[in-house]
Each structure stands twice: as C-alpha cells, then as structure tokens.
Specification:
The chain is mainly alpha-helical and 171 residues long. It contains nine helices and no strands. Helix 4 packs across helix 9 and helix 7 packs antiparallel against helix 8. It is globular. It starts with a helix and ends with a helix.
Amino acid sequence: MKDSELRMIETMLKKQSKLDESIMSAYGLTEINKDNLRMAILDEVGELTHELKGDWCWWKKTQPQVDEEKVLGELVDIWHFVLCEQNICNFGEMTLGSYLQEKEIVDTFLERLKSKRVFLPLFLTELVRRDCYSIETLIAITEYLGFTIEQVYSAYCNKNKINYQRLKEGY
C-alpha cells in the first residue's frame, strides 16, 4: 500500500470519527452498539450486492447492467461503517499503520478473490463476522471491484458532506 493511500484512509478515519461524534451528540448516544454497527454493514453489503446484480443474476433477463457509479456509492457506504468499526473496536488510526504495513494480507485477499478460490460473497460476509482485518478485506474488495483508494477517498469525502447535511436536516 502506498503511503498516500494510507494517509487517505487515516483521513477518512478522522472524518468518520468526527461524523460519528456529531451523530451521537445529535441523538444523545454515548456509544455505538457493535451489533447495530454490524447490522449497518450487513445492510450496506445488501445494497452493494443489489447494485452488482447485473453481474450475478442469471434468472432475470431484464436485469439492468451494473452502474459503476452506484456501485462505488454503495461501496463507500460500507467504508463509512467499517471505518466506524475501526475507530470503535481497533483504536482507529493508531493501529491502522501496523495493519496496513502488512500489504501481504491485502494482496493475499485480493489474489484469492481474483483466482476464485474464495468468492466475493464470502469476503463481503467477513466484513460482518470479523473484528480484525476488516479494512484489509474492504481494500481487497475495493480493488477486486476495480476501484482505487483514491476513488473511494473522493467519493467518501463527498458522501461525508452529504451525511452532515442530512444530520443538519434531521435525516
């Protein structure tokens, strides 16, 4: 992983922490329930798979083609919650560097996806099941789907602004 990509992920972690603090303050929460967080990740995984349906739905001839922009949007929604999890459960950016310096983990995950030894649904469900390696798993999924960390970062920053606006409007 390039240093610039690590810096982008660290920035997203900081932005996510501030957003989560704002949400918690607005709704009078003292913590984010880990089970609810996993449900949120699961929900966003479902939305991502729905956007990918044109690639895997063999029984419906009228299924529209995959819209890469919508896929990126749903992927970024997963990033929001995985970053939240990293902040809550894995000490945020303090442990991020040591995890991501082990580029071998991401490379191994990506190689397994590309070789079809492990399929995308398994990796998507791992985001909900595991406490560790979620960021690495999500990076591998991101790359497997053909997106870069730079693309995720840009889309994340845009969605982060939208989320603040939604919070302001009582979303």
